């Protein structure tokens, strides 16, 4: 096997989040699906920004949040994603490198601009995202640095990458490189509506073992198998992946393999502030554990800890060190 | 008297904050004066950004935070300040208008870019600012909209405006307009080092009654009169302004006039997170009260409430409604 440089490489849409508090009736009035990732074009992005209250900006993007989380645990992380050569692109690059993630994807020199997601956080802490993909639509196979994939213990990508046009080719190419070098490949199903758009392709990725390890939340796994019954969905999921991980908010998480089931409680919290990044940080903790030889129960506990920390603050990446938090919890 | 359109007009350096957590040794290593506003040129700004950890961006600027606070209390607020026609300028404009502040200052079409302040927050919650003034240096008398000054019950500006070259002329001009229309004029002394740079001019503004109402914190009022004795400073302050307000962090605040002294306790807090905006929001509460016919003790209580709220979150402007908080406190 090639020498190992990174624990986890992640690939995703490189996005800066624009986060504001709002009331539920605003979502209804603006036809925003609550709790979902709504794709918007530039015209609607402008309309929503004009209607949005005072906001803060923070680097986001699902798989980039996961890479930042792995690095915060003390893991070695890398990231592929497409920003433009503009102000938001500079913010994104600064923030991901500042936490220690290797990020050398070439920025786009021409329009469209760096992607942004307007995130409305309602009083219940739920986030509703409105994403303008911008430069992310240009991500393609030329952005896959073979040497990085070959030297990463595990490569992980977000299902959201099926939205931009050419990223899926890049993802299939990276899977071949990873497997050729005896590495593991992993994905998150991202969002129930994303699954509606690409259900057959996602199932094919799993059944062909293009991906080995799959993350989903409860509504995503139900959406994948089009069932309202969690146990039926879980059994189908178990059959379709080497390791399947289902997060269930305050009900904790379940990890399934062909012959094992590990159920782990949610990490306790004081006050839910903003769910943005919960799934991304769960994956960060889990994958940090998995690539550092922890057992599956410990991986789930690390995921739960990271998720609990990120939902008690505004924004998708923990402001403090996850390594310190892990040590304080004796994990 | 002219018809009244606004409760409070504020004038200041229009800045976007870039906020990151850090340890004290970073401040020492980078020669950043803790708790102060350090002015930086573009080269040092780039150096510090490269050394800075992952950050979030939020609209800031002392007097603009005050205007946003007045609006959040339900007051009618306006703001003059100079941004550039760039991405950060767009963020600044969006955020201040989104909270309901009237802001029509013309953006600068040429360089320099919109001002930014890199704010390092240490574990004790103290913030140390590193401000690149950018477009703010172009603020001048042409930015004073006479009709807005004439129709505002009170105009307030930040002492920081003595740093850019031509803002002081604008401030003196606005004072004449305000007083001609029977309006009040107010300032904050901003920062002990700012006072070191402009002590005589600030004292002259006060003694000539160009300003009627002056805000300072304890170290600023001591710096102004170059004394370590708080009571001596307070008596000198009393003699130099119509209303003097001194904030003292956890010791509360003191309001002095020629023959009155009002001492008000600090509003209790659960956890200090980030002191950014504390003085700005105190001024917001006080000025909202003053322009809405509250007595001086109530004004100080409103200031303390707003300050307590903003120091329990990251960033210089409260994410929730101060009007709601005021009603919940029965103020």
Q: Can you walk through the features of this model?
A:
2 copies of one chain form a homodimer. The first copy, chain A, is globular, with a radius of gyration of 18 Å. The first copy, chain A, starts with 5 loop residues before the first strand and ends with a helix. In chain A, about 55% of the residues are buried. Chain A contains 12 helices and 14 strands. The model of chain A has no long low-confidence stretch (mean pLDDT about 95). In chain A, a hairpin with a 4-residue loop joins strand 13 (about 255) and strand 14 (about 260-265). The longest helix of chain A is centred in the middle third of the chain and has 16 residues, at about 190-205. Chain A has a single domain (about 5-330), classed as 3-Layer(aba) Sandwich (UDP-N-acetylmuramoyl-L-alanine:D-glutamate ligase), CATH 3.40.1190. By secondary structure, the first copy, chain A, is of the alpha/beta class. At the A-B interface, strand 4 and helix 4 of A face strand 4 and helix 4 of B.
């Amino acid at each position: 096997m090639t020498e190992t440089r990174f624990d986890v490489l992640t690939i995703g849409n490189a996005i800066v989040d624009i986060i504001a508090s709002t009331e539920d009736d605003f979502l209804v009035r603006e036809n925003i699906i609550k709790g979902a990732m709504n794709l918007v074009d530039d015209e609607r992005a402008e309309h929503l920004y004009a209607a949005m209250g005072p906001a803060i900006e923070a680097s986001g993007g699902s798989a980039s949040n996961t890479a930042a989380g792995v690095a915060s645990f003390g893991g070695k992380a890398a990231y592929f994603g497409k920003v433009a050569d503009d102000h938001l692109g500079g913010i994104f690059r600064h923030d991901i490198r500042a936490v220690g993630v290797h990020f050398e994807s070439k920025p786009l020199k021409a329009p469209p601009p760096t992607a942004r997601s307007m995130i409305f956080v309602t009083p219940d802490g739920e986030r509703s995202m409105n994403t303008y993909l911008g430069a992310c639509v240009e991500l393609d196979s030329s952005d896959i640095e073979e040497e990085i994939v070959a030297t990463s213990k595990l490569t992980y990508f977000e299902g959201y990458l099926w939205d931009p046009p050419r990223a899926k080719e890049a993802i299939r190419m990276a899977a071949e490189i990873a497997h050729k070098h005896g590495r593991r490949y992993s994905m998150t199903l991202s969002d129930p509506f994303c699954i509606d758009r690409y259900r057959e392709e996602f199932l094919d990725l799993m059944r062909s073992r293009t991906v080995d390890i799959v993350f989903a939340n409860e509504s995503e796994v139900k959406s994948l198998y089009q069932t309202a019954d969690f146990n039926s969905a879980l059994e189908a999921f178990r059959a379709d992946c080497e390791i399947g991980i289902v997060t269930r908010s305050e009900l904790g998480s379940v990890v399934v393999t062909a012959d094992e089931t590990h159920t782990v409680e949610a990490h306790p919290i004081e006050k839910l502030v903003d769910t943005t990044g919960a799934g991304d940080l769960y994956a960060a903790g889990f994958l940090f554990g998995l690539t550092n030889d922890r057992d599956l129960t410990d991986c789930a506990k690390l995921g739960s800890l990271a998720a609990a920390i990120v939902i008690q603050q505004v924004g998708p990446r923990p402001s403090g060190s996850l390594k310190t938090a892990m040590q304080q919890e004796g994990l």
